[in-house]
Amino acid sequence: MPTIKMMNALKRLLLETSQGGDIHLSKIEADLIQTDILLDEAISKLTDGFMALHQVIAEQQQEFDLLLSGKKAATPENLAHLKDLRETINRHIQATVTGLQFQDMTSQLLARVMRRIIGLREVLKIVNTGGTEIKPEQNPSIHDIEALLDKTSVSMGDKMKELETVLWRAVRQTRMESGDIDLF
């Protein structure tokens, strides 16, 4: 007959398994949402940047064509306009490169998600291992079962703490411009 102590140990083990798993799955979900936001923003920046580049380069080409055909004179004002177009192109290129930097941020987030999944799998293996340690044919005593539940619960708690320690560094950047993490 199960004792109150054994039932409490089992209840604690199941509760810790459920709560720990839920915490890490919630963090995985948050990282994936953050990754999706970064990807959407980066794709938008890249699209806008390439469209703006195309427009300015086309305008610059028209100016060159007019100068080369002699339909427009190489006045200081026209040359200044070409210089302004070149600077605008450089600004658009820099903005587009910023859009490419999302790869580093999303790689960090996805790597952390994978480490969290692997860690959670290791935590669940502890529960599985604990469940296979005592064989029913060995006719374990209540004390053996209580000890196993306690040992499994402590091992699982230690593994959860270890997992959280490894993953403590948050990728805080939720927007491309916030600059909270190192890029490249």
What does this structure look like?
The protein is mostly helical and 184 residues long. The chain has four helices and no strands. The protein has helices at residues 4-69, 76-100, 102-133, 142-166. It starts with a helix and ends in an 18-residue tail after the last helix.
Quickly describe the structure.
By secondary structure, the chain is an all-alpha fold. It has four helices and no strands. The model is unreliable at 179-184 (pLDDT under 50).
Could you give the topology of this structure?
Elements: H1 4-69, H2 76-100, H3 102-133, H4 142-166
Helix pairs in contact: 1-2, 1-3, 1-4, 3-4
Question: Which terms summarize this structure?
Answer:
mainly alpha; 4 helices; 80% helix; 184 residues
Global outline: rod-shaped
Alpha-carbon Rg, integer: 30 Å
Percent of residues in β-strands: under 5%
End-to-end span in angstroms?
61 Å
Largest sheet: none
Number of strands: 0
Would you identify the regions where 5 or more consecutive residues have pLDDT less than 50?
Answer: 179-184
